[in-house]
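Repro:
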Amino acid sequence: METKFISYNGKLIPEKDATVPISNVELSYGFGVYETVRISHGVAQFLDEHLERLMHSAKIIGLEHQFNPTLIEKSIHELVKTNKADTCNLKILLIGAPKKEDANIYIMTLNPLFPDKKLYRDGAHTTMYKYERALPEAKTLNMLMSYLAYREAKKAGAYDALL
């Protein structure tokens, strides 16, 4: 699947034009939240629950913004249709700002990653990684420890790490 467009603050823009300035303090400090939504046959799975969790995560970290679930849902439908994304993963990034009207929301389609069917049959080798997430009720952009755990699992020849 080729991603030609992303949704930026409710407007479709070419993927190549989607940028976040390197000077964006909020992004560099992880002041944002995210959701990953599965799209199957052009339909967003459990979208209401994902959007509710996105809003809840933003509230937990004090990220004020002007976006609402209706706008986000409309943006998702438009993006999926425009990108002809029948089956994919959808990433929603809500990045904070000093003023709520300056917060930004990026929505992009990503190629789906399907586990190999033999993993369901045979199981998967995993590793353990000691880590306790700060603010566990919020899906924040602070994913460093998850990244390090995954990297260590791969070095050990494992499918993934259990945190």
